[in-house]
Amino acid sequence: MARRMLLITGCALGTVMLLAGPAAAQELSETATVQLNLDVVFYMLAIALVFIMQAGFAMLEGGLTRSKNAANIMMKNIADMSFGIVAYFLVGFGLMYGASAAGLIGTDSFALMPGSYTDGLTAPVTEAGAIPIGVDFMYQAVFAATAGTIVSGAVAGRIKFIAFVAISVALTAVIYPIVGHWVWGGGWLSELGYTDFAGSSVVHMTGGVAALTLAAILGPRRGKFAPDGSARVIPGHSAPLVALGTFILFFGWFGFNGGSVLAADGVAVAPVLTTTTLAGCAGGISAMLFTWIRYG
Fold first, then answer.
1. pTM for this one?
2. CB–CB of 177/184 below 8 Å?
3. What is the widest separation between alpha-carbon atoms in the chain?
């Protein structure tokens, strides 16, 4: 009788464990799937915020220049986004995240074709799994376009449209991706331990150096300097556009910096958003005080 009871009990426990095993595994799988989907939605939100920064740059640049340049500046920002993202898709993404050649450039994954990136060697991986390549590409692409639009403001009012398009394509297809590969794609700077959380060097320094180089080549706008060498003020035509552009850019920075966490992790994102807000506000205060003291 005792043996029969033990046998029945053992069979019952075995049945329960057999039924519970797949359920537990299924529960874990569902949890991972939910987290992965949350990460993807987090990426989508960050992509949208960074994308809208293009409108902020357009408003800021348009307001700070003469009204006769407004249409040209609007088209340059649209072209930068359009040509830049396509160029980055075809060439830039592969140069940035493809299999590294001597730590200098990527050599595959062009146009998101199968390669080292899709093999999971460089794709962002969270606890829930690898982020889909299309989602990560979009996040990287709007970063690349931002590097291009930095140049737009520096050459406003003194470059032909077709020349700017060519420069934008070169920057997003070749220059920016190679620098990005050195830091984010497993290149030589990364191997030395160099880190860049949200693109202060990869995006903004690269775009800034390109902007400075082009400004030096083009020279000042016509009429900027008097015959005696003194500078003439060429005021912008719309303070409201400048203010609107500033607020849009501030808004977009939450995606630029917050999205750089690369996961829907509230504990990690919170200090980034706080720092971004305080830094932006402190910058505004500093600019106001300097202008007030310097120019009255």
1. 0.84
2. no
3. 115
